[in-house]
């Protein structure tokens, strides 16, 4: 029997969402003039809130605005490493670290499943001792990272599909695995429902309500 502990990242493990912070800090390091485009990014975010564009398209546009249409992989890697150092040093809940350590000591395979882009989430995961990362991918070619999503945005039902695809790729049958899943947000309800043990962590209001209905554990690593 395989024992897997799967964690969401933003606001589950980390104090705050990482995507906008990564974009802003990377723009500041590599092309400070792009920070002048932040008001445009704000308008795009309002378009998402109004339902005019989807979440994946929001990511692609804000990526293009603040990092450019294409970024050398070496530059992206350096930015990811700097950002991961910062997050790991001061942006991770102590309760998350403790649970990750406990799951590792129990012999669980540690999986980070996040809607964040894998090229920087992977650097954070490495610092926290995860075994693998399931994340939103980007189009890559000729040594460049492009402002386009490859495959699905790892969010909501797509996250569960991507986890199931990873399991299949590892040759792990669902019935041969015991799975714990940790998340802060109701968008992860499909995966919380699918897991053997769903844990609502630092949960916002809608997830707390759903957790009470479904009998999921509720923990608060923010305290």
Could you please describe the fold and organization of this structure?
The radius of gyration is 17 Å and the shape is globular. The chain contains nine helices and eight strands. The chain has one domain: Rossmann fold, CATH 3.40.50. The protein has 223 residues and is of the alpha/beta class.
The geometry reads as globular
Helix content class: 40-55%
CATH topology: Rossmann fold
Measure the end-to-end span. Answer: 34 Å
Regarding quaternary structure, what we see is single chain
Q: Which structural class do you get from the secondary structure elements?
A: alpha/beta
CATH class (first level) name: Alpha Beta
Task: Estimate the strand proportion.
Answer: 15-25%
CATH superfamily: HAD superfamily/HAD-like
Number of domains: 1
Helix count from the secondary structure assignment: 9
**Order of strands, widest sheet:** 2-5-4-3-1-6-7-8
**Low-pLDDT windows of residues:** none
Mean pLDDT: 96
Query: Could you tell me the number of beta strands?
Result: 8
In the CATH classification, which architecture applies? Answer: 3-Layer(aba) Sandwich
Rg, alpha carbons: 17 Å
Strand-and-helix sequence, N→C? EHHHEHHEHEEHEHEHE
Largest sheet: 8 strands, mixed
């Amino acid at each position: 029997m395989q024992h897997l502990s799967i964690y969401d990242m933003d606001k589950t493990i980390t104090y705050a969402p990482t995507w906008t912070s990564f974009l802003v800090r990377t723009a500041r390091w590599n092309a400070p003039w792009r920070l002048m485009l932040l008001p445009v990014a704000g308008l795009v975010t309002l378009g998402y809130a109004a339902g005019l564009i989807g979440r994946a398209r929001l990511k692609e546009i804000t990526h293009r605005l603040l990092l450019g249409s294409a970024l050398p992989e070496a530059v992206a890697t350096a930015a990811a490493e700097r950002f991961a150092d910062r997050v790991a040093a001061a942006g991770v809940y102590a309760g998350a670290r403790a649970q990750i350590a406990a799951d590792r000591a129990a012999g669980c395979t540690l999986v980070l499943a996040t809607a964040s882009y894998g090229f920087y989430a992977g650097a954070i995961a490495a610092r926290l001792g995860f075994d693998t990362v399931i994340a939103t991918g980007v189009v890559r070619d000729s040594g460049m990272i492009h402002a386009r999503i490859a495959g699905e945005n790892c969010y909501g039902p797509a996250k569960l599909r991507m986890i199931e695809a990873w399991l299949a790729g590892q040759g792990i049958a669902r019935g041969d695995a015991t799975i714990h899943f940790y998340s802060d947000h109701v968008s992860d309800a499909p995966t919380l429902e699918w897991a053997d043990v769903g844990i609502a962590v630092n949960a916002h209001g809608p997830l707390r309500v759903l957790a009470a209905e479904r009998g999921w554990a509720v923990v608060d690593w923010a305290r």
